[in-house]
Amino acid sequence: QVQVVEFGGGLVQAGGSLRLSCAASGRTSSLYYLGWFRQAPGKEREFVAAFTWSVGSTYYADSVKGRFTLSKDSAKNTVYLQMNSVKPEDTAVYYCAGRPAGRLYHYSIGSSYAYWGQGTQVTVSS
């Protein structure tokens, strides 16, 4: 089993920056992807970014490419989502999720992830 916990949400002005953290614990060696998803009020959950746990490859949704950056502190088993040039449309609850190896679906498919955090609210004011 793997547990993931998000930190770092809050209120930020448009154009500003915010960093979210996702700390993983438990059998982290079983992880293949660590993903970020978000859900705005009245909207479906959407993929934001994904990080391959061991290799360190990164993938981003078109809506955040060039503005958001993933990184990892291996000593802390923590993945960071640096959010720059934020926009009001980035307002959502952000979820961190872990996906074990061996699943065949595209990394952007939320249902392919097994371990979810409780979510952290990000609000961008205009």
Describe this structure in words.
The chain has no helices and 11 strands. The termini are far apart. Strand 4 and strand 5 form a beta hairpin. The strands form 2 sheets. Strands 2, 4, 5, 6, 9, 10 and 11 form a 7-stranded mixed β-sheet that branches. A 4-stranded antiparallel β-sheet has the order 1-3-8-7, with no helix packed on it. Helix content is 0%, strand content 53%. With 126 residues, the protein is mostly beta strands.
Question: Mean of residue pLDDT?
Answer: 97
Q: Main sheet?
A: 7 strands, mixed
Radius of gyration, CA atoms, in whole angstroms: 14 Å
* Uncertain segments: none
Give the beta-strand count.
11
What is the helical fraction, as a range of percent?
A: under 10%
Shape: globular
**What pattern of helices and strands is seen along the backbone?**
EEEEEEEEEEE
Strand content: over 45%
Distance between the termini: 40 Å
Class from helix and strand fractions? mainly beta
Helical segment count: 0
